[in-house]
Specification:
Radius of gyration: 21 Å
Structural class: alpha/beta
Helix content: 25-40%
Number of strands: 18
Largest sheet: 15 strands, mixed
Distance between the termini: 37 Å
Number of helices: 14
Strand content: 15-25%
Strand order of the largest sheet: 9-10-5-11-4-1-3-2-16-17-18-15-12-14-13
Length: 414
């Protein structure tokens, strides 16, 4: 295999892996830092370590061990995929990659200009504002507290880190040791910096998000015929486990356009095995009847008008915010597992990495093959289940324009 991509959540693994798959490069996405690195029948292997919500020390150990195994597996290139809004254990995981790889430098390009997420003067911007002033700065589970990338890294690592402008394609590379953070406001700047790194032997160990991932096939000389998205069931069921304001706006727009919208109650979200109870089975029957009667449907984990009711219920149960997050994702996974075989489900769209992971766990799937992007950051993937090939659309909670869901519904119906 040519390239190992290390991601910290499932949707992020897919939105980077698809940059290769859509160009005809055999790509696999697997879950778990202990995943097998050989005999994967792929040129590009993406491993979701599921470390975004772990303590920094545990995330460091997981990435360190994976990189050490990757060295013996013979990968030509290692790419640490980070979140374009800088969520998660970015500093710890970059430090683990740099230390375990034995490299002197690690080039880090966190920009995703295709999604209007850029790095200027070492500061990460989302839609024109510093990331700390965007919806990611007020995320209830993982708020981003630093917009200056080197400040964010310094919270989790003592390794030196410095910011630099984008490089000219025929230019040199800074001589400093440590993590080198490069600006990029355009795809051309990602490409020119990547070309300079390639010319100076700096592409073997890299870090960035799906933005830089999109130019890597060209830089690494990989690719074949572009892939065409297959026809999908025109029915669409959206399962939303994201609290991001961007996704909430998409749900509102879809509801206004005629999607049915079911908000799960705090009890349904927080009580273990609810969907296996008598009450849960009755609710499932009602949900399936609704899905059969309507072509476009939403099931979400957000309370109407804010999530205070669920937070209050979690407090009454003595749950921490992390335990609440895990219970909600697990409950949604059980719900999808119970509905999965129903013909009323149609095409399934899952938003949020936790939601995707638990839903796939519920049907015993731990590997996905990305196929193509339906929109930037919106990935169509396939997997084997019950002897047949199934499809699922995935996206991060923070991706997409307000009319994304209605646009997708129209696209798969055409």
């Amino acid at each position: 295999m040519v390239l190992l991509i290390i991601a910290d959540d499932f949707t992020g693994a897919l939105d980077t892996g698809v940059q290769f798959a859509a160009r005809g490069i055999k790509t696999r996405v697997v879950v778990g830092a202990d995943a097998a690195l050989t005999h994967q029948n792929a040129d590009v292997l993406v491993v979701d370590t599921e470390t975004r919500h772990l303590p920094a020390a545990q995330a460091y150990a997981a990435v360190e061990g994976l990189v050490q195994r990757a060295k013996y597996a013979g990968f030509a290139y290692l790419y640490k995929k980070t979140d374009s809004a800088l969520r998660g254990n970015v500093g710890a995981e970059l430090a683990a990659l740099l230390s375990a790889s034995g490299s002197r430098q690690l080039a880090f390009l966190p920009a995703f200009p295709q999604m209007n997420r850029v790095t200027k003067n070492g500061v990460q911007y989302i839609d024109g504002v510093p990331v700390t002033e965007s919806p990611f700065g007020v995320d209830p589970f993982e708020p981003v507290r630093h917009a200056a990338v080197t400040d964010l890294l310094a919270e989790q690592t003592d390794l030196p880190a410095a910011s630099f402008p984008a490089l000219a394609a025929d230019g040199g590379v800074p001589a400093e040791d440590g993590i080198l953070v490069f600006d990029a406001a355009t795809v051309d700047e990602l490409r020119s910096t990547g070309r300079a790194l390639l010319n100076n032997g700096g592409l073997r160990v890299l870090a960035g998000c799906a933005g830089f991932g999109a130019v890597l096939p060209e830089l690494l000389g990989l690719g074949g015929a572009d892939v065409t998205c297959p026809a999908l069931d025109p029915r669409l069921l959206v399962i939303c486990g994201s609290v991001n304001a961007i996704t909430l706006a998409q749900l509102d727009k879809a509801e206004q356009a005629g999607f049915t919208r079911l908000r799960l109650t705090p009890h349904q979200k927080l009580m273990p095995d609810y969907w296996r109870s008598a009450d849960g089975r009755m609710t499932l029957d009602h949900i399936e009847e609704t899905l059969a009667a309507h072509p476009y449907n939403i099931i979400e984990t957000n309370d109407e008008g804010g999530n205070e009711p669920t937070a209050t219920a979690a407090d009454a149960l003595g749950l921490t915010r992390e335990e609440m997050r895990v219970r909600i994702a697990s409950g949604v996974g059980q719900l999808v597992g119970a509905l999965f075989a129903s013909p009323a489900v149609g095409t399934l769209l899952l938003t949020g990495g936790d939601t995707l992971l638990q839903c796939m766990n519920s049907v015993g799937v731990h590997e996905l093959e990305p196929i193509c992007e339906m929109e930037h950051g919106v990935v169509l993937a396939r997997f084997g289940c019950g002897g047949t090939t199934r499809y699922v659309i995935t996206k991060s909670g923070g991706f997409g324009q307000a009319d994304l869901l209605t646009a997708l519904a129209k696209r798969i119906a055409d």
